[in-house]
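Worked example

This section walks through a single chain of length 621. The input is the sequence exactly as stored; nothing has been trimmed or padded.
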Amino acid sequence: MAKYNLLNTLTLPGDLKKLGEEQQKLLCWEIRQKLIRTVSENGGHLASNLGTVELTVALHTVFDLPDDSIVWDVGHQCYTHKLLTGRADRFSTIRQEDGLSGFPRPSESKYDCFIAGHASTSISAACGLAKAKTLSGDPHHVIAVVGDGAFTGGMVYEGLNNAGRSSDRLIVVLNDNEMSISKSVGSFARYLAAKRASDGYLNLKDKVEGALVKIPVVGESVRDVVKQSKDMFRQAIYHSNLFEDLGFYYLGPVDGHDLPVLIKMLERAKEVDRPVLIHVNTVKGKGYPFAEQDPSKFHGVGQFNRSNGHTKTPGASFSSEFGRMLTGLAEKDDKIVAITAAMQDGTGLTPFAQKFGDKNRFFDVGIAEEHAVTFSCGLAAGGLRPVFAVYSTFLQRGFDQLIHDAAIEKQHIVLAVDRAGIVGDDGETHQGLYDAAFLSEIANCVVYSPATFRDLQYALERALYHTDGIAAVRYPRGGEPELSDPAFSAAEDYTHISSGGDTLLITYGRETSEVYKAVKLLEAQHKKADLLKLCKIHPLPEECVQIARKYRTILFVEEGVRSGGIGEHFLAALSAARYRGRMSIRAIENPCIRQMAVPAALKSCGLDAQSIAQTVAELYF
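Given that input, the structure is written out below as tokens.
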């Protein structure tokens, strides 16, 4: 098979319509080899992409992009789509600086109609795109491809509820692989399991309708009578069909790796005069045994050995240390419970789940961050100590619940905010740059940003036992930065390192390492600059404001958005204290940072040690 090279010889996606069944199968095999090879070298989302190869080929065979539009839910399963739309020659650059994004990006290609980085959004976006086509007289279709895991998020049902009432050319493809990032949970997962076990309905329906139509004169009339009573028929075989009840024409379940059947089903969907939902069963990791056996491990994966599936053993990270610390605290306090939104492994909660899962103290609520926040508030109201572990980028989805259900009610919940700051290769949709700013605007909220594992232990214990209301502990992706000064060995609300200079650099979290290096660079130039490291960043410790008032010049350095950030709060506090020295902020002005390694991203924002030292030297000395 390897001697063929259809990916590089075909004009895609147009030539897909010319391929026979065997050539299509060969193309799918080539795509899988390219996916495995590229992701093993670059890292990325492998299992989800391997599972949607045939589905993507079928979509591009039946529909005419970019006139027709595909909206990918989350978007991390769009790699095959990129290979089929003129980007195969650049595919080796995926998730690299100045390369292809790991998610759909309209600015990258006319075939990407909508950006996606969070789950459960595609149906709403597709609903709007389809309505726009209807209103402009455009006869083309919009297809939303959404995974079963996304159906644990409420926005899916808001989209379905509104889309089902329309007469737009909208097709929803439910990619049912029984997995989200952590295994799908809840009632909807059980509902789909029942549907998978009852696929006889569609076959029977087709055969009955086909036979009736062939009966001379009365055939179509009898068929219409049968259609009018389909609710009872469906009830007897399916017991219920949520999607048809919402107004969709339901097709499936269908084998998502059977290309001829997929193509037939999609062509049939094009003929229906109302929104259609196609239920497709796929295998996550299909075609790569290691990913099939452990799809969670190969969901988002770093570099790995293709021949044996071995990944590099990660060192200690803030996520893993958080999980270890929380498990240790929970062993002594049976009121501690942990909540995750389908991110058990990513947030380091696997040890907690293994220890306390059978004791009903660990809860995976699925991709439902809004529910997770309010659920945590309910647990707190019941006398427990809930800890919700969530990525910064996904916590944004629970902002209303933080205000309405947590802050106003003064419920004591702990937020373990993972991936705070720049995340690197996943790019703009996953950067954790807003949490410090929006959390600091919420009443009854205390925010910690540890720079070291020791700080993390301190902050977690303070959040659990020495605060009321919302307590957030935010920390970056990856491991502990290098901070060699003995002053950093003590964990407190703040650390002040003084050398007798009249310039003060203030920072927090991971950025402490870069600022400390900048101080050392200035020291080598015989320029003195002192350092104030915050661990508690909101409310600001009053002592820190008093310390800062003694300096002639102040630079606040922040790995987060400038507008509304902690730096602005600090400078406002200094102004209120009648500070008359020079003060400025170095933070992130444009938070839509594309994919690149973290060090490169810090440098591009002027947050690396060299840039900070140069700024201080030019402005203050």
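What to look for: The two ends are 67 Å apart (CA to CA).
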